[in-house]
Amino acid sequence: MRKNRIRHLLAAIVIATTIPAAAYAADAAGQTATISLDQLKGMMVGTWQNLDETGFTRQLNADGTCIDRFEGDASATSSGVWMLYDGRALPPFLAARKLPAEGVYMTLSEHGDLYTFALTAFSPQSLQMINIDRKMRLSFGRLK
Question: How much is the pLDDT for 42?
Fold first, then answer.
């Protein structure tokens, strides 16, 4: 089994630093299905609205680029790149942070700054994560 596998339940994926990246979940037939991080990334592509600050949206593109926008403030728009990582196979710059191996992580780089997030829950319409550096929980709903 490849290290970058996770399991899902009827297209709803639960990922957390306290739940293994290879979490087990049975589908309606009692069988498990696996998806790769690349498949998860494909499912995350789209525009997400912050549920606590609805004027903020994050657009995650299939090519790994992203755009953050604040409604009514075009000057606050910023672009960057995003990537997903399995906690069991972190690149050296993340492994040095001693993150739990059980997690799935997203990095976002904008204007020379690197932000690291732990994904805590995902479904086709909902994305939840924790900004590890700021220890702030973020919840998003899919717009597109």
Answer: 95
From CA 53, how far away is CA 57, in angstroms rounded? 9
E-strand ranges in the chain read 5-8, 33-36, 46-50, 56-60, 65-70, 78-86, 104-110, 113-123, 126-131, 136-142
- pLDDT tens-place string over residues 116-136: 999 999 999 999 999 999 999
Distances (CA, A) of 138 to 23, 50, 78, 95, 135: 22, 7, 18, 23, 10
Dist CA 86 CA 6 (whole Å)? 9
Q: Write the pLDDT tens digit of every residue in 22-62.
A: 442 334 444 555 778 999 999 999 999 999 999 999 999 99
**Distance between CA 58 and CA 47 in Å, rounded?**
6
Q: Are 103 and 16 in contact (CB under 8 A)?
A: yes
- How far apart are the C-alpha atoms of 141 and 114, rounded to whole Å? 23
The region, left, alpha or beta by phi > 0 then psi within -120 to 50, assigned to residue 72 is left
DSSP letter string, 81-116: EEEEEEGGG--HHHHTTT--TT-EEEEEEETTEEEE
